[in-house]
């Protein structure tokens, strides 16, 4: 397991983010860049899953971002697929702008998410990777990617894990983590209001008991 930080505070929430896409699109390179700040010179095909972690501070809260870098090749995924999708907080879809077939696979990755009960409320982003290898204006899969992202209401990032900066990759994951935090905040508020309601009723009941009917 790669880890960019070694100190883990006692109270720390975890965000599990899975990175999905065809083999060779750059999932390992992207998650490596995010966690270590550098593009890996050499990567092997992921077998099953690789984990990487990074500690963040968001709105005063310590968050452990746990990246699940999944295998793109079907034969390396089969045994692990159930584990990927357990307790997922967000999804990063990746395709390679030099490889149209990796773009055409995106609906299948989305379908797999649905099959594992990841609803549209789970934050997601689309990364069009390897931008360093194409001329943007001449690449149709970039516009198609933008459109697909719009249809599914997710942010779109044209990126290069090879040529992109640490700040750029921090923005991609940072925004996702902020979205997860906001959702968690909303859920906590709802739970709090549900918990408070019976107490409010109890006060009303008490009042009624002391009301004199004469
Ligand atoms: N030029 C360029 N090459 C890249 C970029 N990102 C990844 N690569 C290269 O693409 C190849 C595959 O990258 P990986 O990160 O291993 O791809 P993956 O999606 O994790 O592949 P699997 O583990 O097999 O699913 C490697 O040779 C990387 O160096 C990029 O932005 N630009």
TrEMBL record:
InterPro entries: P-loop_NTPase, Small_GTP-bd, Small_GTPase. The keyword Manganese does not apply. PROSITE patterns: RAB (PS51419), RAS (PS51421). GO terms for molecular function: GTP binding; GTPase activity. Keywords: GTP-binding, Nucleotide-binding. It holds the Pfam family Ras. PANTHER family: PTHR47978. NCBIfam families: small_GTP (TIGR00231). Belongs to the small GTPase superfamily. Rab family. This is Ras-related protein Rab-33B.
């Amino acid at each position: 397991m790669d880890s960019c930080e070694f100190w883990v505070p006692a109270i720390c929430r975890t965000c599990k983010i899975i990175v999905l896409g065809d083999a060779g699109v750059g999932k390992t390179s992207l998650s490596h860049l995010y966690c270590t700040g550098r593009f890996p010179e050499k990567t092997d095909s992921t077998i099953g899953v690789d984990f990487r972690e990074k500690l963040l501070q968001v709105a005063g809260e310590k968050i452990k971002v746990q990246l699940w870098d999944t295998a793109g090749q079907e034969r390396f995924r089969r045994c692990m697929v159930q584990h990927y999708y357990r307790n997922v907080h967000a999804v990063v879809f990746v395709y390679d702008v030099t490889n149209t077939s990796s773009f055409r696979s995106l609906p299948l990755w989305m379908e797999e998410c649905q099959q594992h009960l990841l609803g549209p409320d789970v934050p997601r982003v689309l990364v069009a990777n390897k931008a360093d290898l194409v001329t943007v204006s001449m690449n149709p899969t970039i516009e198609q990617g933008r459109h697909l992202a719009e249809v599914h209401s997710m942010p779109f990032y044209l990126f290069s894990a090879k040529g992109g900066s640490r700040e750029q990759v921090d923005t991609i994951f940072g925004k996702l983590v902020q979205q997860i935090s906001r959702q968690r905040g909303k859920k906590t508020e709802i739970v709090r209001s549900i918990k408070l309601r019976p107490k409010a009723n109890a006060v009303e009941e008490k009042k009624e008991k002391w009301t004199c009917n004469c």
